[in-house]
Amino acid sequence: MLNCQTFIFLPFFVSASVPSRFDLHVHSTASDGLFSPEAVVARAKARGVGGLALTDHDSVTGLAEARQKAAVEGIAFVNGVEISIEWQETPIHIVGLGFDAAHPELLAGLKTTQDGRLERARRMDAALAAVGIVGTLAGALRHTAHPAQISRAHFARYLVEIGLFSDMGKVFGHYLTPGKPGYVPHRWARLVDAVGWIRAAGGVAVVAHPGRYKISNRQMRAFLGDFRDLGGEAIEVSSGSHTPDHARHFAQQARRFGFHASQGSDFHGEAGVDLGGFAPLPEDLPPVWRLLGW
Ligand code: AMP
Ligand code: MN
Ligand code: MN
Ligand code: MN
Q1: Does domain 111-176 have CATH number 3.10.129.10?
Q2: Cα–Cα distance, 104 to 106 (Å, whole number)
Q3: Beta strands, E only, the chain
Q4: Average pLDDT over residues 168-195
Q5: I want to staple 200 with a disulfide (CB 3.0 to 4.6 A). Which of 65, 92, 105, 235 is the partner?
Q6: 241 lines ligand 1 (CB under 6 A)
Q7: 201 lines ligand 1 (CB under 6 A)
Q8: Ligand nearest 214 Cα, by number?
Q9: Taking the domains of the chain in order of start, what are their residue ranges?
Q10: Do 26 and 54 contact (CB within 8 A), yes or no?
Q11: 268: CA distance to ligand 1 center in Å?
């Protein structure tokens, strides 16, 4: 009997003692995710995620709701945001973690980055109408409760909804990326701004999914050097948008530049990588949560 109990309970004991997976890159309806902040946290809990950062694009409006729900569910939570920047004409995303979400400099900076999303969306609507696809702004707006946060993702969902393409990736490939008819550039923040706002608010700046940017290895090294010189402290090594090769490559870059390593699914609610669904970080790299008090 004793042996039997040991057999049954040991696996439970072992899994409970293994550190839970932290997901530090996640979206909600506060930007272009499909789940409310509360629903994201509930799903994280159900999937066994032990710590979460909600990182909506250029917005901190979902954090209070998520934090409250995380306390109820008993999982760790840190404030997060994903700031859209442009570095040498390349759009790049910088995640901020563990900052004071009421910090005036950060809030003012996020507002300047957000302002203009709706104007860009109007221009996207006109650009798509010019190639015969009309009514896209009205359609995209039906996919968000926050018009000021309107994103290319909302346009892509609408174009999938009306059957133009079977998935969002195809919409981006044909219409919403540079050189394509519905692409309208936007004046995003600069690297120095994003890192500065995050640090002013007491947070840690992290390069989001570095494997996704269409720049050469040499440019990437220049970018990572600039990021470090400005006070950036971590890069995402394990990401829902990374292949195993990306993860190996950026683990090497983290060692080279002395960055902490971060990890996150970049969950938006669509099919694909779910919360906590990524490989563990290499053990020799200092994880970013050491800087977050976890
Ligand atoms: P925006 O911030 O308005 O420029 O929109 C960028 C967002 O579109 C990203 O945060 C992703 O959520 C989404 N996105 C970008 N590229 C793709 C793609 N190829 N497939 C699906 N979603 C994408
Ligand atoms: Mn997004
Ligand atoms: Mn991103
Ligand atoms: Mn993201």
Answers
A1: no
A2: 5
A3: 21-23, 49-54, 76-87, 90-97, 204-207, 234-239, 260-264
A4: 96
A5: 105
A6: no
A7: no
A8: 1
A9: 4-110+187-290, 111-176
A10: yes
A11: 10
